[in-house]
Structures are given as C-alpha cells and as structure tokens.
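SAMPLE LOG
Freezer: B-3
Tube label: C17
Construct: single chain, 330 aa
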Amino acid sequence: MVNQEKTLDVGFTHADFAALLDRYDYHFNPGDIVAGTVFSIEPKGALIDIGAKTAAYIPIQEMSINRIDSPEEVLQPNETREFFILADENEEGQLTLSIRRIEYMRAWERVRQLQAEDATVRSQVFATNRGGALVRIEGLRGFIPGSHISTRVNKEELVGEELPLKFLEVDEERNRLVLSHRRALVERKMNKLEVGEVVVGTVRGIKPYGAFIDIGGVSGLLHISEISHDHIDTPHSVFNVNDQVKVMIIDLDAERGRISLSTKQLEPEPGDMVKNPQLVYEKAEEMAERYRQQLLQQQQQGTAETTEEVIEDIPEATDEDTAEPILQEA
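STRUCTURE (predicted):
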C-alpha cells in the first residue's frame, strides 16, 4: 500500500491577507473623534490603539487643556477613552491624537451655555497685565478688562483671589472670552436694591458729565442732569471726592450693570442741592416717599388706560352671539 502525501491548498497567501486588511481597514481623518485604548505610556507621550495598522501617538502637550507634568496625570494603562485625530499619518503611518482638542471644544460649548443662561461664575485670578486680569473658565483663558474690575486694591494684589464674574463676550472663532467682575457685583447688589430707595454713598470720582458714587462696593452714576433742578456747569461745584452723600436710585439696569442715581428728585425746592445740600439730605426719605407715590400713581394710571383700550377693542355682543345653541337630533 502506497502512502500518498496530500498537499492542502488553502488558496490564501500573505498578499491576499494584506489585501483583505486594506479592504476592511478603517480610514481615519483629521478631525474625527475615535475610541482608543492606552497601549503604552512613555515619558513625553503615549501609544494608543485605535484599530489602525500602527498604534497612534499622543504627545503630552495634547493630553489636557491644563498643563500637566506627566502622562500618568491623565492616562492609565489599558484605559479606553475618546481621542481627537489631530494630524494625518506621518512617514511611518502613525496618526497624532489629542484629548486637549476635545476638552477645548466642549469647554467652549459649556461657556456658550453659561452665557445664554446669564450665569455668574467664580474663578481665581492667575495673572494680571496692563489691560486687566486673567482667569480660567472651564479650562479656557478668560480676560477681565481693567474697567470691569470693581475693587479698591491694585490689580497685582488680585492674583490668587477668587472673583464672581459675568460673561461679556464668548467668541470661539476669535478665541475671545471676556468677563466682568463689576457686572457680577452690580447684579448681586441690585438684587437688594429698589428704584426709589435712598442710599448713602461716597463720591469716588468726578467727571464733566457726573459723579460716580460708591454704594456698598458698587458704583452708581449721578449724572449732572440729576444733581439739581438748577443748572450746574460742573459737578465739581457741588461735590468733592470722598464726600458722603445721600442719593436716590432712579434706575437699575442689570443687563448693562448700571445704577442711575439722583439728588434732584430729593430737593424740597428746586436748587436746594446747590444752595443747601444738608437740607436735601435731611428731607431725603420724605422726598423719596413722594417720588415712590408718584411712580405708583403713574403705574396705576398706565394700567387703567391699558385696560380701557382693551375694553374698547372688544366688539359688542349681538343677539346671534348670545343665543343659546340649538341641539339637533341626529
């Protein structure tokens, strides 16, 4: 009996296998977000398995929106998470990945949502410059202009200080995130203030158009036209810096962060603020009560007029309108 060797013809070569891999290989493009598993951690980066022929690479500077000193602060061996494809394959067929870019996109999405909600956020000042102060919101660098820092200390002393802030500008395309400390303070103060209320303040600055009055840590404007019923050439003729004054709130604009003040409305007689300011301060609460009563009457009158207009617009009922419906049998 003769033994015959039989050769198994698989019909599948290495070239066929490579072609099959190419056929079913995923195509990765810059901008894609893919799932990947940490394959190996190196001192300045990590290798990530995303299902490509070659392990992708993420440098340490792309691992977080915040500065880190070692990859282990962000990644752990065999950890699976999302990665952003930052750059196409290099000469060795290796893709470059980023976590920072994902965090960056989601941070802008979050601050846009916070701005839409008109939310107040808190952040610590980490640096100052000639123009203002720098903070981080959701990992993004934000800027507080000097004109929107409401504090008596020097800007340099704010480093390390946590401040309440409101959003002024959120522009991802221009990479501009601008915030206001003053507006946050004014809004918080406004919640405790009312139009027609008399408050005591200190003159902090005088301009040709009016005086800035500090009332409990926020600044209100006493416009020159609201100082007295008499004509005034300049606020300097009535006030000095650091004067203690009584003023009445006539407008609260939370959206613009502005408080408008008046002493004119507190004058018992026109011109008293120029001739006898002490009398104005003594009669302030009494005159403010009259002002509030006038506002109330105006509001009631406006409501009555609106009601009359609505009644006039209602058509008169006809017999046809008031007739009872007739039920018809099917």
